[in-house]
Q: What sequence folds into this?
């Protein structure tokens, strides 16, 4: 069977959002298979991928002349290409000239907006169309819905990326954000942790708007004690080292790391905690005097403590360039409803009065943050690729923004192989899923991309998606384009429906 015929057989299934869990490819009885030489055919093979260059993300090398044998959703084995005749009667995927890589993980997204459930839902298949088969959802005010989607996707009833979610995030009382799990005491925090565990969230997220510093630290400790990964922002009242020693798993947003470039970071935190310095004054303090050598020492400590970092450059970049960019023709607007995009306005309004000098300062800060990425990498800090795409994050488009993010990392001087690891195996390992996902290897899930360019040479190759393999199905370019068209149609009908109301 040729690649074309597989594509043809799979297309009808793609018209429905409902996915059947079983594989769409069938294989003849095993007894019919020819035997050649000492090797004998493996049983249970449902798809044979050949003529590809296999991207080994861990060794950063290409492996040629291999067959990748799938059994349903699983990579059964990788065997020498000369064994192709053993499998000649089985469904084949000829990936001539293409590069087979593990699919991408976006390690920081939000599916948020109390009135945007449908608007977010229609975006789910788009992640697949952009080669992203797993997302880490870093909390939202749609938490119950996101938890439901996670389970429905896992059960094959909904088409979308595998979701790992924090559910609600921890905050203090009366926080700025909607939908937080607000806690003001140790007892409330423990009850909150019980609740999140009962909901089987995949990790814990904490942000710093109104949460008390001591409670912040004890929340990190408690999560760690319960064996949960815990990700957080960094409040001015705590030093990064204090959070690291409490057991923090990851820092979200590299902007916080600039504080490590100040020798008095711990002293500043102590002053804020004692009420001798306001958070606003601390922010001003950190605007001048960043010392690179000082920061490098901090990065070494982060690496030693095993704290990962999700840089999320694209959001800051979009804001820094807001006044210089015409977004009106952005392709991704085809998929975002008017209601979704209306959420962009608050940041646009907030920045409307910025002077050219303030804009320049903002751009310089973004550049400084970006320039830290290769240094973090060299220091041995685990980097996780995440977009922070969310309705509230202006022009940080779901799915597409991960590719924008990766390109920024490359422009910042990172090696494409390191970037690819941050967008595949690092994420899987961080979620404790490294044995199942993140590389093309026997025994792992076959969440795979066929790219028409080499991502080890230029990370922009992640945009050149020819086919996706996910949950035992092959989505060729035409099928992926249908997912895009379908989302565009759903967006239009949602807008129209609301307009008529
Ligand atoms: Zn976020």
A:
């Amino acid at each position: 069977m040729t690649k074309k015929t597989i594509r043809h057989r799979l297309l009808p299934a793609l018209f429905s959002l409902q996915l059947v869990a079983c594989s769409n490819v069938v294989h003849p009885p095993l007894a019919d298979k020819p035997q050649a030489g000492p090797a004998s055919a493996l049983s249970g093979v449902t798809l044979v991928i050949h003529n590809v260059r296999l991207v080994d993300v861990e060794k950063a090398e290409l492996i040629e002349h291999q067959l990748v044998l799938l059994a349903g959703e699983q990579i059964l084995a990788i065997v020498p290409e000369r064994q192709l005749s053993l499998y000649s009667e089985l469904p084949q995927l000829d990936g001539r000239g293409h590069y087979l890589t593990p699919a991408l993980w976006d390690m920081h997204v939000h599916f948020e907006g109390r009135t945007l459930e449908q608007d977010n839902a229609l975006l789910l298949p788009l992640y697949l169309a952009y080669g992203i088969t797993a997302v880490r959802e870093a909390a939202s005010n749609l938490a119950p819905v996101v938890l439901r989607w996670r389970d429905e996707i896992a059960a094959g009833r909904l088409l979308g990326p595998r979701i790992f979610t924090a559910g609600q995030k921890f905050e203090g009382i009366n926080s700025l954000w909607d939908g937080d799990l607000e806690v003001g005491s140790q007892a409330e925090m423990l009850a909150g942790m019980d609740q999140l565990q009962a909901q089987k969230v995949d990790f814990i997220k904490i942000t710093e708007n109104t949460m008390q510093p001591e409670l912040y630290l004890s929340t990190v400790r408690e999560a760690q004690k319960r064996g949960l990964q815990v990700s957080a922002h960094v409040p001015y009242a705590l030093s990064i080292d204090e959070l690291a020693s409490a057991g923090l798993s990851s820092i979200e947003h590299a902007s916080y790391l600039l504080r490590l470039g100040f020798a008095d970071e711990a002293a500043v935190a102590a002053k804020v905690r004692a009420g001798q310095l306001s958070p606003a004054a601390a922010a001003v303090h950190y605007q001048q005097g960043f010392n690179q050598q000082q920061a490098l020492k901090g990065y070494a400590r982060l690496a030693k403590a095993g704290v990962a970092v999700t840089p999320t450059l694209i959001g800051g970049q979009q804001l820094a360039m807001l006044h210089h960019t015409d977004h009106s023709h952005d392709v991704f607007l085809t998929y975002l409803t008017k209601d979704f995009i209306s959420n962009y306005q608050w940041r646009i309004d907030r920045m409307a009065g910025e002077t050219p000098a303030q804009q320049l300062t903002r751009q310089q800060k973004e550049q400084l943050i970006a320039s830290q990425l290769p240094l973090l990498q060299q220091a041995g800090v685990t980097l996780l690729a995440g977009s922070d795409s969310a309705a509230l994050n202006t022009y940080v488009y779901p799915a597409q923004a991960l590719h924008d993010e990766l390109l920024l990392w490359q422009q910042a001087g990172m090696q494409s192989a390191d970037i690819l690891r941050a967008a595949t195996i690092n994420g899987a390992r961080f979620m404790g899923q490294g044995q199942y996902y993140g590389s093309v290897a026997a025994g792992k899930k076959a969440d795979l991309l066929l790219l028409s360019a080499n991502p080890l040479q230029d990370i922009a190759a992640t945009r050149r998606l020819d086919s996706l393999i996910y949950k035992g199905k092959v989505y060729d370019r035409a099928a992926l384009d249908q997912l895009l068209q379908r989302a565009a149609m759903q967006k239009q009908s949602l807008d129209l429906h609301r307009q008529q109301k």
In short: Residues 1-37 have pLDDT under 50 and may be disordered. Residues 169-200+204-248 form one domain.
